[in-house]
Design a protein that fits this description.
The chain is built from eight helices and twelve strands. With about 270 residues, the protein is α/β, with parallel strands linked by helices. The strands form three sheets. It has a five-stranded parallel β-sheet, with helices on both faces. Strands 6-7-8-9 form a four-stranded antiparallel β-sheet, covered by helices on one side. A three-stranded antiparallel β-sheet has the order 10-12-11. It is globular and about 55 Å long.
Length: about 270
């Protein structure tokens, strides 16, 4: 791939380490603090100060997770994330400036699994790393590991493959987990707090994370994302996967405008 160094077999994670994390930040002070906290938490840590260097370290060591600053010289975090994502579903936590809501949303839509705003608590960042990695490594119970299907959707949780009407879906790690969870509970309404707890494994966090992932998932599984018939909004409550939605009148009853989001979701 252009600008991505040829991959070599990654160096093994040191014995006893909880995993390998790549920290990408051009601010040496921030990088030093983050690296130090992750080391003390038991992680092996790689470091890069710009986009091209990050892609080089990514190709060389294939980390278990990437902590990626949005504002980088030579290549911004969005582009770095996109290029890494083309090589597999590595979890990414993006660092953004406080108040840049549009950038945070774009980061999630690019494929980041979580974001942390600056200034941030290093301890909270380590907790986020723990949570994202724990979820990424989680193995579904045997009774839930079989294929899931309904409403034209089919998922293989073991192979991590998803299809809509036979067409492959390019889902991020979290999008896949979210869709799998909804397919396991069709017809049931879940609030954003419940989804954050059950899918993300968090008891804290910005609920807009859920909103963005729902919107992005709709863009991949709905015939018309502006009038969703599968992932429905239940106004004032949350979201429901509706596998019975069929026919031209299927949009009726989900909320104002027959299911149209009217520019916002919960």
């Amino acid at each position: 791939m252009e600008n991505m160094p040829s991959a070599h077999p990654p160096a093994p994670v040191p014995q006893g380490a909880r995993g390998r994390v790549l920290v990408v930040d051009d601010d040496p002070t921030v990088a030093e603090v983050v690296v130090g906290y992750l080391h003390r938490a038991g992680y092996a840590v790689e470091q890069a100060g710009d986009g091209p260097a990050a892609l080089g370290r990514f190709a060389a060591c294939r980390p278990d997770l990437v902590v990626l600053d949005l504002m980088l010289p030579a290549m911004d975090g969005f582009e770095v994330c996109r290029r890494m994502r083309e090589h597999g579903p590595v979890p990414v936590i993006m660092l953004t400036a406080r108040g840049d809501e549009e950038d945070r949303i774009l980061g999630l839509e690019t494929g980041a699994d979580d974001y942390v705003t600056k200034p941030f608590s290093p301890r909270e960042l380590v907790l986020r790393v723990d949570s994202v990695l724990r979820r990424a490594r989680a193995v579904a119970p045997a009774e839930d590991a079989g294929p899931l299907s309904g409403g034209g959707l089919s998922l293989d949780p073991v192979a991590r493959r998803a299809h809509r009407d036979g067409r492959g879906l390019a889902l991020t790690l979290r999008e896949f987990d979210l869709l799998a969870f909804l397919l396991r509970h069709p017809g049931k309404v879940f609030g954003r707090e419940e989804l954050m707890r059950e899918v993300w494994g968090w008891d804290f966090g910005d609920l807009s994370t859920v909103t963005v992932h729902i919107r992005r998932l709709r863009g991949k599984v709905e015939q018309d994302p502006a009038r969703p018939r599968l992932i429905r909004t239940v106004w004032g409550v949350g979201y429901r996967l509706d596998l019975e939605a069929e026919g031209p009148d299927a949009g009726a009853g989900a909320g104002p405008g027959g299911g149209r989001e009217r520019g916002r979701v919960l």
